[in-house]
Design brief:
The complex is a heterotrimer of chains A (287), B (464) and C (316). Helix content of chain A is 76%, strand content 0%. Chain A is globular. Chain A is mainly α and 287 residues long. Chain B is an alpha/beta fold and 464 residues long. Chain B has 16 helices and 16 strands. In chain B, strands 9-8-10-11-12-15-16 form a 7-stranded mixed β-sheet, sandwiched between helices. A 3-stranded parallel β-sheet of chain B has the order 4-1-5, with helices on both faces. A two-stranded antiparallel ribbon of chain B has the order 2-3. With 316 residues, chain C is mainly α. Chain C has a domain of 209 residues. Chain C is built from 14 helices and 2 strands; from the N terminus they run αααααβααααβααααα. The radius of gyration of chain C is 20 Å and the shape is globular. In chain C, 59% of the residues are buried. Classes of the chains: A mainly alpha (287), B alpha/beta (464), C mainly alpha (316).
Amino acid sequence: MVVIRDIIITGLLLGGIFALVSVGLSLQYGVGRVMNVAHGEFIMIGSFVTFWLFGSTIHLDPLVSILITAPLTFVIGWILHATLFRRLMDTSPTLDVFEGKSMLASFGLLYVVQNIARIIWGSQNYQVMYLNRTVTGAQIPLNRLVALGVVIVIGVVFYIFLARTRMGKAIRASSQDPTTAGLMGVNINSVLAVCFGLGVAMAGIAGSLLSTLYAIQTSMGLQYTVIAMIVVVLGGLGSVSGAMIGGVVLGIVSQIVTYFQPTWTLIAYYLVFILLLLVRPKGIMGK
Amino acid sequence: MMQDEQDPKTTEESSIASRPVSRRQFLKYAGLAGAAIGASGALGGILSACGGEEETTTTAAPGTTVAAGPTPPAQDKFVIGGARPISGMYAMFEQAHFGPAYKIWVDDMNAAGGINIAGKKLPVELKVYDDQSDLDTCMRLMTKLMEEDKVDWLLGPQSTAFLFAGAGLAQSRGYVLCSAEGGATTLEAEMAKGSLPLFFQFLNYSNHYQLPVFAEIMQELGAKTVSIVYLEDLHGIEYSSQAQLFFPSAGIEILSSTSIPFGIKDVSSIVKKWQGENPDVVCGFVYPEQYILVLQTMIQLDYNPKAYLAGPGGSTEVVYNVFQGAADGIMFEGAWSPKQSPAAQAYYEKFIAKVGDKANVDFWGPLIYGAELEFIQKCIEKAATLDHQKIAEVLRTAHFPTIMSDDMFMTAQILDRSCYAGQIGQWQNGYPQVIDPGAKRTAEIWYPKPTWKEAAKSSTSSTT
Amino acid sequence: MNIKRLTPARWAASGLLLVVFIVLSLLPTLTQGYLVTLLTDILRYVVLTVGWMIFSGPTNYMSLATAAFYGVGFYIAAVFNGPLPFVAVIIIAGAVSFVMALVVGALTLRLRGVYFAIFTFALTLMVTSVVLEVERVVTGTRGRFVVTESTQTAYYAMLIVTIVTLVMAVLIRRSRYGLALQSIGQYEEAAAHSGINVVLTKVMVFAASAFVMGMAGAIIATRRTYIDPGIAFSLNTSFWPVLMALFGGMGNLVGPVIGAAVFTYLGELLLTRFPDLYMLIFGVVLILAIAFMPRGIVGLAEQVWGKIRGGRGAPA
């Protein structure tokens, strides 16, 4: 029983981390059709900015530093979409072509961002030691609990944003039918840029928290992109709640396998993913 | 495969003969393919010109400069080439392990007016390419360095797998290759067969003699049981299998040996398993990314084994960067300590100046690399030629004093055991100490190590 | 392809082709140096890129499984080269990749667009992890030593595989399969209704492209002495052919060939000239190429050529 309880608790916590890493990508693909391979690089940027602020003289609390990383990464994302991806949209005859091109452009972005980060921060491993203890009485690591809390907050806030605000409604309209939304007076370009920016900002927030959970390195991005892709497809492309569910599913699967044979963890990720894709290509929450 | 030379033409002609319709299309495309290759060459030429730097033309390749007697070479510089991981997942090694060591070496040689070949001082030039931590790229660039750039000396590539591939490649091109980061357990058999006469191993590794020494230390401390976690890569697999050889024979029982993949994100079930097994010692044959997670989980669950042995990267001050005082008492594969000798202290200071950051210095390799490069230089100067066969002869038999050992020499192409500063180290009050049994020990072993909480508390005052 | 007659330009192109292949086949006797190694490498990417294009170009199914098929070739070479003759090893490698692609192709029939891309990507990752685990459990280590072949042998083998690939690409394009593939790419349901066996066409062409990838892998492996799963299934191998095809232009077969050649050479130049800024420059070039050369180098060249000719007939 203890084993099952442990697997569920640690699986949920890990699922929270996976969901955190993935919601941004889900948004970017779901609304903007950009399969952003550089997603992990923005997580890395979030991590390193947090690490840098924590190590500096102001010794900024990693949770507080979200207030800096989120707007910073939002602006980066917004600018990228307003320049690069908008141009690709304009020059692509079909959505298929745009998906291909934007994926490859983000591959170029991955190279650029990673190289700049390496010039600034080098290639060593770092980590922010923060809340590295368990909740009294239970063996639940506090830093992971905080990460789970943040992802739930992001989910709720984003849900309210989509449901209640003007921009949120425009985003929902654009993701369902961009042409009609455009006809109804929605400024598609600005909606997409905001969406992409929000996706990058979520990567930045994830990065801030990851810097307290794992070793960070300037070449760390791609592994998180891969996790995010798996989670997003598991949950259903474009569904934020799907990303949450996908994250938890992957977290629990991962903990079950790790308990029996840790080396099979990655194989299990891919296997679950491949099987699900074959059985239900639209994902758990897909329509 | 000599008949191959005819094959491309036959294929081409038969396709022309049998397929008159597709011929024009095929010819057009293939023609443009050829043009493309030509065009890329032209583009390359333009870009080369933009690169600014002139092509290095060394007048002679090693192997062709067979000078009888100490005749100075005709060339006027000595080019050292290497394909190193400037970017990618192994970039930290280039940044803080072998990278600074060879740069210091080149600076030192040039400060002295160059390397002395048969009475002629040749200034040294470095030619380092980025292999992106990718073995395929690394092998191609090493081939380029040997075949096109015809460098005079080749730096070792990073990591064991690269060393395995590189040793054979350099051998086939008649180049001496000396190890950088990476061990030679699997290469030993090849070397014993005599198929790699130009390969020389300097860095110590699992069976040479880190794990035998660690087994001795455990015996001395009275540790009886050990649990192992290892990474599913060459380093981890090699160390765990060598541990299976050396630990039981020293009367130490291995309670469990768990392999983990790169990118594992939760190891709490493994730490809980250890809590149940309660071994005296935990060995983590993993890289920094994983041992940081393992240590962090141990701290969170407040699990305190009497000793913890860390793998590569455990020997760098990165552990203090991350864990501050709590890192006190961790043992690591290595090892050297600046306290050992004035020469070691001087090299430590040089190294910090080169890396630019105290927190990155490694206490496994650098002193060995420094001594290795000094030794190589002395051997080349003694050989008084650029002929790699002759330099290899000298390397095999020479004895020289270096910063690490008063008498440095190779036994069967591997650096002799007596030359090392140490095999196993321990962090004590933020400082690396060598804990090998015997004269090399620089401090008494802390055993059992302080608990994570005690260590974190006691050294908050002592760390700078 | 609206010009059907042999024009002087075509005669010139044919002549050029002949010269190029004669030069390429005589090259190793003219030079002993690094050029042969570099050309082997360029031809490898030509094979992978054209191989990728055969299937993914017309159908718009972006396959990222190139590394899986290529890596299988590596392992076949590691296991069989030495005991079996090199030629047999190359063919076995191609055949195994072919069969693997048949299975993968049959499994993925329901997937389209980005799902297909992600599936093939995950497949490569899974094959890597599985091989890694099998090696750990079965052989107790991670990598293998490979019986090597000489630079010249590998070069000629790669040249032959390149020619095979190009011939195959042309034949498929000109056959009814080529048309079928294009109609699948444009509108799959319509293609199915018009009597095309969509399933068979897709799977067979996918497998054919895997065949040449496996052969290329087997040849390159014999130049590497030592291989492990990280080397054999490097993700670069999946992404690069896509980038190269896009960089060169996907309109016809010339594009991928030029793309592969320029890309490989450019990459090496940057790695050796600007090792510290390699990724930065490479990334910027990539982004600019995608943003400002929507039809690749070939498209750009046609545009420029069209301008020079001043509208005297649109370029093909």
